[in-house]
Design brief:
alpha+beta; 3-stranded antiparallel beta sheet
Length: 272
C-alpha cells in the first residue's frame, strides 16, 4: 500500500491538488482533483468528484499518512472517521497551487489589474487612458509584485502608487458629448448605454445630443461602436474638446485609425 501511495505522491504535483489545514503545529493535507475544491465548497459537485484519495496526510508529497490514533489526536476528536476529517480539511483548508496553477493565477491577476488601470485611470498630461501595453511595461519596469491570494481589484491603488513615477496616472471619469442624426438614434442608443452613463439628452435640428460619463478605458470602445452603429455619421468628442466635431478615439500602436465620414465638423477622416 505504501508503495502505491509513493507512486501516487510522485505524480501528485501533476495529477492532484493539495488542500492543507494547519491546526497549531499540526499539518493535515488531503489530495483533491485539480480545480474542484471551490466547486465543492459552492455545492456544484459532491465530495466524490472532488476528493482524489480517501486519506489524510501529514505530508502528501511524501505519502506520510496519519494512523487512526494520530488523526484523532490531531483533530482533537476521539474516534473521528477518516472521511469526517477529510471533510473538515476540505472545508477549512487552504488550496495549494502547483507551479502551473500559480503561473496561470499570476497571469490572470496581472491581466485584471492592467485592465482596471486602463479603464479607471488616465494620463494627466493627455486626459486619455494609457495603452495597456504601456501599463504592462510599467509593471515590469517597477518590478511590481502582485499578491495571488488577494482580490485584484483591491490591489489596483497600490500598484498605481508603485508605477506612478514611471507612468503618471490619475483616477478619473470622462465626460463626452455625442451627436447622433435622428435617423441613427435607434441604432446607436443601445451602444451608448452599454458603454456610458447618459446624464442628459437634448434634441436639436441635427439630431440627439447626449452628454455621457464613462470610465476612461471605455472611451475607445464607445467611439468605435458608435461609429459602426451609425455608419460614421455620429460625432463623439470629449467635453471641452476643440476637435471640430470629429470622433476622437484612442488607438494602440498596432491599430491605425479607420477612415470614416469624420462627422459634420468637416475633414475626410477622424481626429487623433
Amino acid at each position: 500500500v505504501h508503495g502505491d501511495f509513493s507512486r501516487m505522491a510522485a505524480s501528485s504535483k501533476r495529477d492532484f491538488q493539495v488542500v492543507r489545514l494547519k491546526k497549531g503545529k499540526t499539518t493535515l493535507e488531503i489530495l483533491t482533483h485539480p480545480n474542484t475544491t471551490k466547486d465543492f465548497r459552492s455545492g456544484k459537485i459532491g465530495i466524490d468528484s472532488c476528493v482524489a484519495v480517501d486519506a489524510v496526510f501529514k505530508n502528501a508529497s511524501k505519502a506520510e499518512m496519519y494512523t487512526d490514533a494520530e488523526l484523532a489526536d490531531a483533530m482533537g476528536t476521539p474516534g473521528i472517521a477518516v472521511m469526517d476529517a477529510v471533510r473538515v480539511v476540505l472545508a477549512e483548508g487552504e488550496i495549494q497551487l502547483n507551479a502551473r496553477d500559480r503561473a496561470e493565477r499570476a497571469a490572470e491577476v496581472r491581466r485584471l489589474i492592467v485592465a482596471a488601470i486602463h479603464k479607471h485611470y488616465i494620463d494627466p498630461r493627455s486626459n486619455l487612458p494609457h495603452p495597456m501595453v504601456r501599463i504592462e511595461n510599467a509593471l515590469d519596469e517597477a518590478a511590481v509584485r502582485l499578491d495571488l491570494d488577494e482580490d485584484p481589484e483591491r490591489q489596483v491603488a497600490k500598484v498605481v502608487r508603485e508605477i506612478m513615477t514611471i507612468l503618471p496616472c490619475k483616477k478619473s471619469e470622462m465626460e463626452a458629448v455625442i451627436t447622433i442624426p435622428h435617423a441613427r438614434v435607434g441604432a446607436a442608443l443601445g451602444v451608448v448605454h452599454s458603454h456610458a452613463t447618459v446624464s442628459s439628452t437634448d434634441y436639436t435640428a441635427e439630431g440627439a445630443v447626449l452628454t455621457v460619463t464613462l470610465a476612461p478605458g471605455d472611451f475607445d470602445a464607445l467611439c468605435h461602436e458608435v461609429d459602426r452603429a451609425t455608419g460614421g455619421e455620429a460625432d463623439v468628442e470629449l467635453a471641452g474638446s476643440t476637435t471640430g466635431g470629429r470622433i476622437v478615439a484612442v488607438t494602440t500602436e498596432d491599430e491605425a485609425p479607420k477612415k470614416g465620414k469624420g462627422g459634420r465638423g468637416g475633414g475626410g477622416g477622424r481626429g487623433g
